[in-house]
Amino acid sequence: MKKAVALFLFFVAAVFLTSCEGKGKLIIKEPPNADVYINGKHVGKTPLEIELKEGKYTIEVATSPFVLERKKDVWVYFDHTTELSFNPTPKGILVIDTKPEGAIVLEGRNPIGKTPFKDKVDVGQHHIILKLGAVGTSRVVTVEYGKTTKLFVNLEKAVVHFKANPEDAILYIDGKKIGKFPVTLELDQGVHNIIVEKGEYKDKFVLRVKKGDEITVNYELQEVQLPPIQAYGPVTFTPDNKYLVTLGKAGIYFWDIKEFKPQISLYDPKDVRNFDKFINYGISDDGRYVVGIKPIRRLAYALPENLKGKKVDKILVWDMKTTFPVLSRLYPMESFITALSGNKAYFVTRDGKVKVIDIKTGKELDEKNLGKVPSSGKYINGKLYIGTQDGSIIILNTIDGSVEKIQKLHDGKITDIQSSKDKTLIITASTDGSVKLSKPDLSPIKTVEVGIEVYSANISPLKEKLAIGRADKSVDVIDMKTENIIYKINRLKFIPISLVFADEEILIIASSIKKPEIDIFRNGHLMKKWIQTIK
């Protein structure tokens, strides 16, 4: 009998302890009349009070199928009441899959699952990160209310969307012809050689991709000019033919015309706002020094008392080893032609004078009166050739400072003076409608009649072609042997005041400061370049 009673009491105690085993209470009041799910199982509607075993739970409260809030890792403790409040927000379904499957899915830094992944997430933009071993990538997806957004990522290759303008260009990858744009391809991780070609316009690019990438690569055929610094003439090449030299918005620019980018820029460090622009420059024979003329007009209020009310030039001389000015000084003159010879800088003023300045001290060494009104000039082999309004050429020897010759070549203003690459020909252009080729001593060789005012002329490096810049905003390129026109360049936006051949095919044409523009042509066709952008 005693044993039976003891056994009964033990059973009652066990039932009591089991009924009280590690339970706590969970209360959810807000929002009202919302469905409550615990670990994915529907347990009722709010307000809700429920007992749960001590442990960690995922609680979800929904006012509709796509308006809900989920809280993970909610702890319910033994003999303790946990009260929660929810604020359901609009959701959409996000489905993510990868090749291969099993990638960790993170939003920001927070892991939210593995692929294949499907869940309801907040409406809006999400930054998703996918990781599988050493491969990692990210995507931005936009989820809409009540809709399913699908994302597939190939973690074994890169997906590349190729686009082009114009679309009839031809795409080559690693030597294989792919065809016309647009096209989407899967590429192996690594470096790929890209060629884009349309007619005569062909460019090469390098594209580097990694596993998991999905990128869009755009190619656009654009006209080759020299922006964004509003380049203008005169234009020339450095003595070593390494750089094209132009004027521009803030100074003097040295361009690598293969890349169409300025490699060196010379500017006035004391005029950071670039109030006044350079109008001309000169380069020493060895390329060591560059001189620039900067008329001071807008900064007249900043002039010292002794220069106020006068026409003033700011002269800068840069040492190309440092690209920093070794001379920066104001002079009471209005010059527009300059040259460097040895340690001297020469300036031809609009009132017909030649001033000589020591580039190291800035001291004025000499001044000559030409007796004629100058209109153009060019430094060639130690001599300064100065064209005049009446069509004459004055040769000034910069070695001894003497005037070697004054000779009338044209019946109108001389607008441009150039030389052949080997310095054996002097080319002059004039408003009388002609171009003349002479020997360095000005003895005549050939006259080309154009029949319209000419503002520029130059000869190709091999002396096979002569380019003539006309007043009607066009350029004639003439065969030097036959004097026939090889091609014409019409409808320029400016009068070509300066031009130079880079080689027998490429011609560079420049405007004046009034309408800054420089165009580059190959065999008469405006050069275009494929520009690559990656997104």
Overview of the structural elements:
By secondary structure, the chain is mainly beta. Among the domains are: 66 residues, Immunoglobulin-like; 65 residues, Immunoglobulin-like; 61 residues, Immunoglobulin-like (Sandwich); 102 residues, Thrombin, subunit H, CATH 2.40.10. Helix content is 3%, strand content 59%. The radius of gyration is 40 Å and the shape is elongated.
Notable features of this structure?
535 residues; mainly beta; Immunoglobulin-like; four-stranded antiparallel beta sheet; 1 helix; 59% strand
Task: Give the helices and strands, then pairings.
Elements: H1 2-19, E1 23-30, E2 35-38, E3 41-45, E4 48-53, E5 55-64, E6 67-76, E7 81-85, E8 89-99, E9 104-107, E10 110-114, E11 117-122, E12 124-132, E13 135-143, E14 148-154, E15 158-165, E16 170-173, E17 176-180, E18 183-187, E19 190-198, E20 201-209, E21 214-223, E22 232-237, E23 244-247, E24 251-256, E25 261-267, E26 280-283, E27 289-296, E28 312-319, E29 324-331, E30 335-341, E31 344-349, E32 353-358, E33 364-369, E34 374-380, E35 383-388, E36 392-397, E37 403-408, E38 414-419, E39 426-430, E40 434-438, E41 444-449, E42 454-459, E43 465-470, E44 474-479, E45 485-489, E46 498-501, E47 506-510, E48 518-522, E49 525-526, E50 528-534
Parallel strand pairs: 1-7, 8-14, 15-21
Antiparallel strand pairs: 1-4, 2-3, 2-5, 5-6, 6-8, 8-11, 9-10, 9-12, 12-13, 15-18, 16-17, 16-19, 19-20, 21-50, 22-23, 23-24, 24-25, 26-27, 27-28, 28-29, 30-31, 31-32, 32-33, 34-35, 35-36, 36-37, 38-39, 39-40, 40-41, 42-43, 43-44, 44-45, 46-47, 47-48, 48-49
